[in-house]
Amino acid sequence: MMPPVGVQASVLSHDTIKVTWADNSLPKNQKITDNRHYTVRWKTNIPANTKVKMANSTSLSHIVQGLKPNTLYEFSVMVTKVPSSAPKDVTVVSKENKPRTIIVNWQPPSEANGKITGYIIYYSTDVNAVVHDWVIEPVVGNRLTHQIQELTLDTAYYFKIQARNSKGMGPMSEAVQFRTPKSKFKKSAGEHSHGKS
Fold first, then answer.
1. What is the DSSP string of the chain?
2. Can you name the residues that pair with 38 across neighbouring β-strands?
3. What number is the average pLDDT over the span 98-105?
4. How confident is the model at residue 14, as a pLDDT?
5. Is the pLDDT of residue 178 over 70?
């Protein structure tokens, strides 16, 4: 990633500065369409041991408030990118002879923007549940398959996956529906000879 260029700080008041910058890796209109964000850092040299302060911005400017009046500050901006596409080809299958266990498989996102450090599988019986109500299963980054056990039989579950890299989380995949099998036991031939099997 090319670092932001043309970082400028303009004073708005005695304790507020607006920091602006440009990003040469964006198209000419400087429209941000992916999941990149910018980290603005600032510090003052008086006293010498002051900590660096930071803020994140998803636009090409940031207003820093609460500064000390009549003080020299130094600003810097860096860009970070999280995965900007979701894991793909998400499939769910029953584990053979274990109807309450399913196996989730997927492929890495096309736009990983760095090494994938992990995946998070979300599952729920309610596709419209808020994110906090989905069950979460973390998976390490080099795995593309995961088993989930102890599910309820004859129940529709929904699965979504998101990837993470060292910078943060990417978008979630579309929800995939899977219904667990009805019964632990295979029906014997005699049971479904009458009526529909």
1. -PPPEEEEEEEEETTEEEEEEE-TTS-TT----SSEEEEEEEEE-SSTTPPPEEEEESSSEEEE-SPPTT--EEEEEEEEE---S--EEEEEEEETTEEEEEEEEEE--S--SS---EEEEEEES-TTS-GGGSEEEEEETT--EEEE-SPPTT-EEEEEEEEEETTEEEEEPPPEEEEPPS-SSPPPGGGGSSS--
2. 57, 79
3. 96
4. 93
5. yes
